Amino acid sequence: MPSSRWDTTGLATRAIHAGQDPDPRTGAVMTPIYQTSTFAQTAVGEHAGWDYARGGNPTRDALEEAIASLEVGPHGVAFSSGLAASDAVLRQLRPGDHVVMANDVYGGTYRQLAKVHAPWGLTFDPVNLGDLDAVAAAFRPQTRILWVESPTNPLLTVFDIAALAELAHERDISVVVDNTFATPVLQTPLSLGADVVVHSTTKYLGGHSDVVGGAVVTNDDDRAAAYRFHANAVGAVPGPWDCFLVLRGLKTLPVRMRAHMEGAARVVEAAQTLAGVREVLWPGLPGHPGHEITERQMCGPGGMVSLRLADGETARRACERFTVFTLAESLGGVESLVEHPAAMTHASTADSPIAVPGDLVRLSVGLEDPEDLAADLQQAVTGAR
Ligand SMILES: *Cc1c(COP(=O)(O)O)cnc(C)c1O
């Protein structure tokens, strides 16, 4: 990626401008949606930089430059989903290679490793990444990747990315961080020592629950070329319209994250007063085990909140009683969502080493009035008892 005049500007400025200069031909302020599968050539093999749209498209280029700029990495590669992005990273490994990952990693990442990559010869171990001795003990001569997610989905555990990177790099192990929950507004893993960042842009980066997408960012030229080759070779690429939607979402990411956190703080405050709530999981709480790392590593605790209720049945009943929060998978959109991870997003991890507790309710706090969200939580939890 060429260095740009936006490199030295602040995050909110980059979210709006990096990769998104007005269209040089027409002056269009918004990035055009290049809805085309192919590009005319002036002579055989001579073209303006794009030949066939699986390999590249100017709308996708803009998105890649914008995401890379936010993550402060020189290379961004956009994918058709977050899991397509993870797949591109894991497919650089070879049979016999080993991955160490968080033991409460996103369920889809676990499923991809267990059901797609393991049958082709990768091995992996889920480990508590909060225990550096356990991580060191899990490393083998064949370990190539330490897969970190922080905060995790759905338990909101926070890990010390810089300490993990130091430990991994002593053994030449690459560090990949899934930054979907934090977003580059709250944390930039490359600046903490990570080698690769992956995103589900479906969530906060898109921010409006209207697109599925993913991205990989790295500061390593060879890795970036390999991911780009992979995206084109397997066709795991996003369409121009989807890229436009994520670009549009990115522009308000910093202001949305602030509002998500304001709402989350109010919801957490309400949850703490409810007799039906056994535990509130939010890295912004001083009692959260990762609170000290959060203060050091992040610019805020994020907009995701998980609650533990009396038992699985109560948790399911509560999920079905919300009227402002919508019962649905996914997160990071303007509307608040509630879900029951054990039966919904993380059903694929049932009976696995990373199964989530049945009494857990996960909230993605949206941008509605915080008082309405607090009242909805109160009636749902109280009514479910
Ligand atoms: C949703 C999610 C993914 C997968 O992204 P998709 O866009 O759904 O493929 C990966 N990691 C985390 C943390 C997620 O929340």
From TrEMBL:
<feature type="modified residue" description="N6-(pyridoxal phosphate)lysine">
    <location>
        <position position="203"/>
    </location>
</feature>
<dbReference type="GO" id="GO:0019343">
    <property type="term" value="P:cysteine biosynthetic process via cystathionine"/>
</dbReference>
<dbReference type="GO" id="GO:0019346">
    <property type="term" value="P:transsulfuration"/>
</dbReference>
<dbReference type="GO" id="GO:0004123">
    <property type="term" value="F:cystathionine gamma-lyase activity"/>
</dbReference>
<dbReference type="GO" id="GO:0005737">
    <property type="term" value="C:cytoplasm"/>
</dbReference>
<keyword id="KW-0663">Pyridoxal phosphate</keyword>
<dbReference type="InterPro" id="IPR054542">
    <property type="entry name" value="Cys_met_metab_PP"/>
</dbReference>
<keyword id="KW-0808">Transferase</keyword>
<dbReference type="GO" id="GO:0003962">
    <property type="term" value="F:cystathionine gamma-synthase activity"/>
</dbReference>
<feature type="compositionally biased region" description="Polar residues">
    <location>
        <begin position="1"/>
        <end position="11"/>
    </location>
</feature>
<dbReference type="InterPro" id="IPR015424">
    <property type="entry name" value="PyrdxlP-dep_Trfase"/>
</dbReference>
<protein>
    <submittedName>
        <fullName>Cystathionine gamma-synthase</fullName>
        <ecNumber>2.5.1.48</ecNumber>
    </submittedName>
</protein>
<dbReference type="GO" id="GO:0030170">
    <property type="term" value="F:pyridoxal phosphate binding"/>
</dbReference>
<dbReference type="InterPro" id="IPR015421">
    <property type="entry name" value="PyrdxlP-dep_Trfase_major"/>
</dbReference>
<dbReference type="InterPro" id="IPR015422">
    <property type="entry name" value="PyrdxlP-dep_Trfase_small"/>
</dbReference>
<dbReference type="InterPro" id="IPR000277">
    <property type="entry name" value="Cys/Met-Metab_PyrdxlP-dep_enz"/>
</dbReference>
<feature type="region of interest" description="Disordered">
    <location>
        <begin position="1"/>
        <end position="26"/>
    </location>
</feature>
<comment type="similarity">
    <text>Belongs to the trans-sulfuration enzymes family.</text>
</comment>
<dbReference type="Pfam" id="PF01053">
    <property type="entry name" value="Cys_Met_Meta_PP"/>
</dbReference>
